[in-house]
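Hi Y.,

Following your request, here is the sequence exactly as I used it, all 370 residues.
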Amino acid sequence: MSFFAGKTVLVTGGCGTVGRELVRQLLSHQPREIRAIDTNESEVFFLEQELLDHARQNPQQRVSSLCQIGDVRDADKLNRMFSGVDIVLHTAALKHVILCERAPFDAVQTNIMGVKNVIEAALNNDVERVIFTSSDKAVNPTNVMGTSKLMGERLITAANSLKMQRRTIFSSTRFGNVLGSRGSVIPIFARQIENGGPVTLTDRRMTRFIMTLEESCRLVLAAAEMARGGEVFVTKMPVIRIADLARVMIDALSEQAGCHPSRMPITEIGAKPGEKLYEELMSDEETRRTVELTEMFAVLPAFRSVYEEIAYDYSDIVSSEVHNAYISSPDNAMSLSELKEYCAHHDLLAPYLKERPVLQMPTQPLRRAA
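Below is the corresponding structure, written out as tokens. Let me know if you'd prefer a different format.
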């Protein structure tokens, strides 16, 4: 039996990239009901239609659904929606760094006060557990968005001290780039290649953790099952060089745009303000209170004495000690051939492949602008 079988699961931000995939994966776990809340009216309607179609096509599953327009800033709406809910997967957030810099108070309202509202609604309705989806940018943050996500993590951990005999477990998951999601680098590179270039790199030395949408959501669901209270689950992820991803995509897509791969220009535009050359998923300080699991690390709360006695007795502990911060070191990056195989195995470029190979042979060397 699945951990989610027979339970009511609510997904905030249910129409976002991660939220929608969580809803899709939950259908196979036989929950009693799936609820989704989002601010996008049109997408809420389309998601509801998809779930109704699924119910008609799979009557044996008997999964009911409820999709509603709503905002995590609306505490009253959350209180009503959380009634009778067993598990909350909180994915709703403002996630774009530059937009949060331009509208910092909105980031606070959604990413901090929204988390507060989720916590209070969960406690008021005696929800079984709440899983907050965080970001690599919460580690040593350099911007408003990352700082707001870090505060969200801290609030979720501290919420375990507010339980007062309630059953609610609060935990977070933290992961890096979800390849192919809206706003990720793959659709940006694909659009640039389709337009004939240039493909823009901020810095050729830049490395990033990567994960597919399906895998990231699978691990969110796994974290929901394993959560003991207060920990932050950090998913183990492969590392790539962004320049290598650009090269793989150019080789795969440029010919259908009528340009030979060697002709596609690549422009290095310099790192954005506050942008890091490498990605951090765990800080040096956190390593002192982290245990390694098979597919994740679990960063335990810094102030254990504040909470009730919690046994972090995971069944798949690999090591009770972690000595190195988890960063996207170039020494651990995939080779070009490994990255090409990874993209092919997960069909990451399939949405951008077309049936119109028009090839223009190069008449001059590849143009590179520094």
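Residues 1-175 form a domain with the Rossmann fold fold (CATH 3.40.50.720).

Thanks again,
Q.
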